[in-house]
Every structure is written in structure tokens, then in C-alpha cells.
Amino acid sequence: MKDEHFGPMGTSRYREYARDIHSSGTMLLDMIEDLLGIAEAETDQINLTDEICNIGQLVEIAVASHKQGAGEEGVKIEIDCPPKLPGLRGDARRLRQGLFRLISEAIHGARRGVTLKLKIRAEDERLMLTLTEDGDGESEGSAQGALPYLPEDPFISTEDSGTARSESLALSLTRKVMELHGGTLDVSEGPAHRMAISLSFPGERLIR
């Protein structure tokens, strides 16, 4: 590009190169941020800020930030959230980070044409958030509707190495955020290898 081997700047080929460079740079930055986040959690360097959070709003913010990317991937996202939910005592910035990474990986792993459904409920003295994939989508070879468990992910966790798939770096960060809040992240696999991700916050963090 610097030497204009394909003609003057502004041609379509240069625009494609610029998009590829931007995409690669963004992906690298995300990986670095995830690594730093996990390293902080592993060394107990994170001090959570306790504030009353609205989990519905945090999810909406995370989804809105991925609206364009989801559209480009042919993926829809639906939020099912009741109008009244208990407040959540937690660190809003860390929660946003965990939700952002979860949704980003879900979009990346979903097949074109599917809908990702985010359901938020207060059940059994806990606050639950589930992410599931709905619809058949467009099959590409042996595509498995992986959600955030991506066999092609270059950064994988050796934890639970006996499972069918390895956990992606971004999902590991989301799990760490949940653990810092006393919560859990569980993964189940249904028909056609569709994943369901469940986030659960304990009752002691709920503000009613």
C-alpha cells in the first residue's frame, strides 16, 4: 500500500486491504485484553467495585455494540428480559466486559441465518442468563453451531480437556468474571451440537 503497487490509493483493492488490517488489529487487541483480564484474575489483582447494576441494561449495551457485526455475519440477536428484575450487586465494568466477550464469541461461532436468544430471569433466588442458538442456519461442511466453543480458536484452555470441545479464551474470561461475582458459567450441548450457555448469579448479590 505504501508503494502503491496496485495503482493510486483509493482503489477498491486498497480498501479491502484496509478492512482486513483493521479486522486483524481489532482481533489481536481483543486477545491481548482477554489475556490481561485473565492474568489479573489469576493473580488476584482485581478488586471488584460494588454497585447496583441493571443486568438487563448491561446486556442491551453489549448486544447493541455487536449489532453491526452480527448483521454482517447474518446472525440475529433477541433479548428476552422481563420489565422488572432485582438489581445485581457487582462491578458493572467487569460484567460488561464478560458479556461483551460472550456475545462476541457467540456471533463468531454461530452459523449464518440463526438467531441467538438471550433470556434473563430471576429464578430460585438466583439471577439467570441463558444464551441459546435457534434455527438451522446455513450449513458449511461440518459446521456444528458451536457458539463460543470453537475448535479453530488458536487460544484454548486445557481445563476440562476431556470434553468434546475446548473453551475459548474469551469464554474463559467470562467464566472468571462470573467466579469473581460468586456465580457460575455452565455449558450444555443439545441436538445438532447446539450449545446453551448459562450464567448464574447467587442470591446474595441480588437487590430486591
3D structure, described in words:
By secondary structure, the protein is an alpha+beta fold. It folds into two domains: 12-41; 50-136 and 165-207, Heat Shock Protein 90 (2-Layer Sandwich), CATH 3.30.565. The strands form two sheets. A five-stranded mixed beta sheet has the order 2-4-5-7-6. The chain has a three-stranded antiparallel beta sheet with strand order 1-3-8. The protein is built from five helices and eight strands, in the order αβααββαββαβββ. Mean pLDDT is 75; it is low at 141-146 and 148-166. Helix content is 38%, strand content 22%. Helix 1 runs parallel beside helix 5, helix 2 crosses helix 4 and helix 4 (92-109) runs antiparallel to helix 5. Keywords: Kinase, Transferase, Two-component regulatory system. It catalyses: ATP + protein L-histidine = ADP + protein N-phospho-L-histidine. Residues 1-205 form the Histidine kinase domain.
Question: Main attributes?
Answer:
single chain; 208 residues; alpha+beta; Heat Shock Protein 90; five-stranded mixed beta sheet; three-stranded antiparallel beta sheet; 5 helices; 8 strands; globular
Q: State the strand order across the main sheet.
A: 2-4-5-7-6
| Integer tally of domains | 2
- The fraction of residues assigned to DSSP E strands is 15-25%
Name the CATH superfamily classification of the largest domain: Histidine kinase-like ATPase, C-terminal domain
Number of helices: 5
CATH architecture of the largest domain: 2-Layer Sandwich
Query: How far is the N terminus from the C terminus?
Result: 58 Å
Low-confidence stretches: 141-146, 148-166
Cα-based radius of gyration, to the nearest Å: 19 Å
What are the secondary-structure elements, in order, as H or E? HEHHEEHEEHEEE
* Main sheet record: 5 strands, mixed
**Which term fits the overall shape?**
globular
How much is the average pLDDT? Answer: 75
The helicity comes to 25-40%
Kindly provide the name of the CATH class of the largest domain.
Answer: Alpha Beta
Q: CATH topology of the largest domain, which one? A: Heat Shock Protein 90
Structural class: alpha+beta
InterPro entries: HATPase_C_sf, HATPase_dom, His_kinase_dom, Sensor_HK_Regulatory
GO biological process, one term: phosphorelay signal transduction system
Organism: Aerococcus urinae
Protein name: histidine kinase
